[in-house]
Design a protein that fits this description.
Elements: E1 5-11, H1 14-26, E2 31-35, E3 38-44, E4 46-50, H2 51-58, E5 71-75, E6 77-80, E7 84-88
Antiparallel strand pairs: 1-3, 1-5, 2-3, 4-7, 6-7
């Protein structure tokens, strides 16, 4: 991968595991690393978190803002709306 990595790091808990599965489903180019007490997902230039995929994973309605409870750190520019949370370098 190049030096244009974007990333998101979550506390390692039940919610974050669902998030990680949904993120990996939408971003097959991404790399997931389990570290002590956290999950880091990184990708070259862009990561997309889709509300629809997360709702399928959870089996319920999901608000994009819910994930911020579990976020430890992010790297990249954020573009967020009701349906997506996107990290990318422009």
């Amino acid at each position: 991968m190049s030096e244009q990595l974007v990333f998101i790091v979550f506390q390692d808990n039940d919610n974050a595991r669902y998030l990680a599965d949904a993120i990996m489903a939408d971003n097959p180019h991404a790399e997931m690393q389990h570290q002590p007490a956290m999950i880091r997902i990184q990708a070259d230039k862009r990561l997309v978190i889709n509300r629809e995929t997360m709702e399928e994973e959870l089996g319920r309605d999901w608000d994009v803002q819910e994930m911020l409870i579990d976020v430890i750190s992010i790297g990249g520019n954020v573009d967020e709306d009701d349906d997506h949370f996107i990290l990318e370098w422009n």
